[in-house]
Each structure stands twice: as structure tokens, then as C-alpha cells.
Amino acid sequence: MLKIEDLHVEVDGKLILKGIDLEIQAGEVHAIMGPNGSGKSTLAYVLAGREGYEVTKGSVTYKGRDLLEMSPEARAAEGVFLGFQYPVAIPGVSNVYFLKAALNALRKHRGKDPLDAIDFMKLSKEKAALVQLPDELTKRSVNDGFSGGEKKRNEIYQMAMLEPSLAVLDETDSGLDIDALKVIADGLNTLRSPERAMLIITHYQRLLDYIVPDVVHVLIDGQIVRTGDKDLAKRLEAEGYAEVRDAIQP
Amino acid sequence: MATATEPIDEILKRGYDAGFITDIEQEYAPPGLNEQIVAFISNKKNEPEWLLEWRLKAYRHWLKMKEPRWAKVSYPEIDYQDICYYAAPKSKDDAPKSLDEVDPELLATYEKLGIPLHEREILAGVAVDAVFDSVSVATTFREKLAEVGVIFMSFSEAVQEHPELVKKYLGSVVPIADNFFSALNSAVFSDGSFVYIPKGVRCPMELSTYFRINAAKTGQFERTLIVAEEGSYVSYLEGCTAPMRDENQLHAAVVELVAHKDAQIKYSTVQNWYPGDENGKGGIFNFVTKRGLCEGERSKISWTQVETGSAITWKYPSCILKGDNSIGEFYSVALSNHRQQADTGTKMIHLGKNTRSTIISKGISAGHGQQTYRGGVKIMRGATNARNYTQCDSLLIGDQCGAHTVPYVDVRNSTAQLEHEATTSRIGEDQLFYCRQRGLSEEDAVSLIVNGFAKQVLKELPMEFAVEAQKLLGVSLEGAVG
Question: Model's pTM, two decimal places?
């Protein structure tokens, strides 16, 4: 599904990603862990196509196509979803209105008829229930005045609505209490499917107690320094990133 | 991130959709302004003596007045002797008596504007009074309105058919010498709309007027007068467009509203005059005086405007709250893109007891656009327990535009309560990226964010106008709204 080869990325002239290699198959859940400033969010933004992130070397192939050539909205249409670490507010635009516009833009790209209001609301109710997002929040302005936890639940609700092939989730667990974390993890587990790949970016392994990843990567200083199974995450939690960093220093 | 605003700039450079020119024979007055021209216009319209005198009085006042330059707009000197003050489509015989007699080309023009009269008539149930340059070409639904006693006709016709009403109310809210542009309008106005709602009548349909300036080097000076008798209600809509021309065209209209006891007037405008090209060449100079008088107790006047066009906008729809417990409202969305300049706002003058006013102003600046909110709230001595709420929000798109807020407050009664809120925000690259990541094109994203910003005002518009305005906001900034 996704193949990243020797990816180098600069932001404001500073090299952040220094040769990433990563391959994710459909149906797999990969976790990327790493300390602050290691380049986790940069990787997420590059995959989604944010401006200001310059690829200086390497390639990203998604479903056999050059992902880096595509505009952010084309990537979304092709099934790439980014769950934002800090979702922005759009005052005056209701959540459902926004999502209906987005969903119908994606459907149009995929050659499907737009959903009418009744079908849309039915779908919305079903998906909102998945992350226990209150009805009232789906009607409020996008992320406007939402608490941290509500914003994160809203991201997963949007993901459920848009049904991506590849979901990149950037610190979806940050700022959540344990109950909210469980709700989100349950939602994500329901969304696991053989056709869908997930890339979960996190600082802590606690989310991985609930969503068990197939593969865990450790990202430090712009490079993947370790790759392993779910036990790697547990070891990291016990030993800390410093241990890994020390181990890779010459 | 230096490139973040570039795509927006790209989209901002789209064309003007209503910029076609209709090829029909026009009848002009020679350019220039003097007492003969004033008399010529009056004569063309077969006006009574008193109206000619009224015009001449206005003209003589105007000669002594100075063009106001206090607004935050800059434009070249206007040569008032280089403008035609009268242009009418030449019809074969007399004025058309029904739509069938209207010049097909003219009807095609409205068709292009998306206001097919026939269709509106049948589908929307909107009575349309279409003013093309200076003469009102067709008024629909008049008979149906006449059944309930509502008078809706062109101003010229009203002068002929209801001279006593015109004489009573003309200039009663905006006096001849009120300001430079209203004086000019009073001297040379050529047509406009007249509405009279009798006592206790709720006007059964939305009344609507479309204005269009077609002829080159022509000014448009329309005059609108709406009188709502005791306990009546009317909702009136106006829309405006003009073809693309390199030179500037002058538009100086006067609108007067009178609401008697317990009457309500809702006046909505969607203004899309040609704004000029992206370098500021051409476009309409829009100098408009709009004022409503809440004459009676518990009367209410509410102005809603969506201003997306014109090179220069100078416009302050105002309310004089004379009746006790009367209410004035002003809801505005003004958008300036490219080199457009808008200085707009309102005045709320509280005279009566327990009078209330609400001002919601949303300014959007893009490109090199300059946007000024200028508002005045005056609480006079007798206005015990008057209240005002003002909210002005500005939205900036790109980093070359400007937004300014100039609120004046004058309180002479200590029981008054005033609130003022203001915000300025910018469409962020992060908001755009968020929308695009969800699959929306950049154009749709801008449009979505702008419409979200303007929603509080758009919801005040009648339904079909709200949709149109929403589209217009989108079109004025990029391609179209999804």
C-alpha cells in the first residue's frame, strides 16, 4: 500500500528526515514512536502533502503511484487520511456541513453519487456513536470550542466517515485521559480492516496497549533506528528513548 | 512557508461573471449637468411642476456643496460634467405594458444574470421591478399585489399615479441637502422603485428589484421610497450588476424607508457592481445614501447587505429610531478583493424611549482590498433605556489587504447600554490545509471558511437570496462554491 524509500525532508532549510525507509501493507497497523523533535509529525505532514515540507531525496509510492506528485486533496481522494495532532477550528462552519462537503468531494472523485442529507445524517449518527461523539458536537462549528479530547474524537469520527485506505494518526492519544483513550482505541479497532492500513504516531506506548500494532518503528533524529513487533514498544516504555539513542551512538 | 498564500492569490484573480454588455439602442441626455439637463429629465418623465422645482432646488444646493473626502477611500477626481445623467433603452412605442412587450435582448440580459423574469414570476413568486440604467422596464406581479392594496411600481409611475404619496414622503427621511451625493441624486434621479404597504397588510410576497448599469459613461441615480403604514410588513430585496468597462461609472442612489407604528421593513441588498480589474482599472463608484425612519412606536427596520462589487463603496444604511420601543438592525457582509475599497457601516440614532439597535458587520479583505467599518451610535437625551449591540469582525486573506474599524459613539442619556465587540482574524494556512486534507479543493476551502465567517449575516437574508449571496461570496473570491 505505502512504500517510503530513502526519504529526506527539509523544513526551512533544516534537514529533519534523514533517509526513512518504510513499507506498509494493506490491513497492517504500524506504530512510529520517538521522542519530541525526532521528525514524527514531519513524516505525517509530508505524507499528507503540507506545504513547506521539501522532499530533497527519496520517494513515496502509494498504491503504486507517486504520492509526492499529488495535491493534498488528491491524496485525500485517493484515501489518505491524516488525524491531526492539533485539529484547527473553523468558526461558523458546522461539523456535519464540513464533513458532507468533504465526503461528497471524495465520492465525486471515486465516481459515486453524492449522499443526500438523509443518508448522510444516518451514516453520521452511526459513525459518531463509534467514538461516543455527542450529536450536539457534530452540529457545532468544526473544532470550535471543543475540548482536547473532543477534538481527537472528532478526528476519528471524521476518519470513520471518510473511510480512508491509509490513516496516519499523529499523536491521537496526546492529551487524553484514560477513559477517552479507551473510547478512541475501541473506535480505531473497529475501523481496522484487511483493506485499510494505519500508521499510528505516538510518543507513549499506552495507546498501543489497546491497539496492538503489527510493526513498531522507533524514529530518532530523523531516522528509523529500530523496527520490531509490539514488544519493542513495551521495552521502550521500560527503558526510555535514551537507552535506544545511546545504543545507536557510535 | 513563503508560498503558503500564493495559491490563494491565484484563485483571487478570477473573472467577473456579470460583465457582459447588452447591445440595444439607448436614448441619452447629452453629457454634463446644468438646469437644462435637470429640466430635460423631468420633462422626459412628464413630471409635475412641483417635482421639477424640487429637483432644481436640490441642484442649486448641490452646486454649493463639496464632495465628501473623509471616508478611507482614494479615487481620482470625478468630472461631473463628463457623465450622462439620463440613458434609457429606446423602445419602439411607449413603455412596455407587459413582459411580452419587453425587448427580448433586455430579457436575455436578465436571463444571463440568472434572473429570468418569467421564471421568477412563476416559480419563486417574487415580484421583480427591474431597473435597467435609468428606466424601470417591467414590473411583475403588480395586479396580484394591488388586490391587497400594495403599491409596487417604478418611481416614475408612482409620480404619475400616486403624486400625493410621493410628495408627502419624498425627501422626508433624506432631505435634499443631506449630503453631496444625495443632493446630486435628488436633482437627477431618473427612476427607482416605489412601495406602499397599507395599514395592517402583510405583503404576501418578497418584493425585488434588480439594477443594472449598461450604457457607457452613464451614471445611475435611482431613488427608492418604501412606506409601511401602521401594523404592516414588507420584505424588499435589491440586486445590482454592471458590465465590465475600463472607465469608472458613478452610482449615487438614495433609499428612504418610513415605518409607521408597529410596521416592519426588511431591506436586503446583494450588490455586485463591477469591481474593476485586478489592477484597479474601471469599476463602479458606489456612493449611496440609505436611511430608514422608525416613525411609530414598536416599528422595526432591518438592513441586510452583501456588498461584493464596486471599486469604491461609500454606504451607511442607517436608522432613525424615533418611535418609542422601535428597533433598528444592520447586518452587513462586505468583501473587497483586488484594489477594491469599501468604507461602509451604519448609523443608529436613538431618539425614542426603549429603542434598541443591533449592528453585525463582517468585513472580508483579500488581494489589495481595503475595508473600513464606520459606524455611529447616537443616544439622544430623550432616549431613556436605549440599547445598542455592535459586533464588527474582519477577516483577512493574504498579507496585502487592510481592515479598519471606526466606531463613533455619542451618548447623551445615562440610562443607555452599549456593547461593542470586534475581532480580526486571518484565513490560516493551517485551516486551508485541514480542509484540503479532508478532500476539499483550495477554492472550496476558502469559500467554506468565508461563508462560515459571514453566516451570522447571511442567515438574515431571505432563503433564495442567501443561496445567491453565498455563491457570490464564493465567486468573488474564486470559482464557485460546491
Answer: 0.79
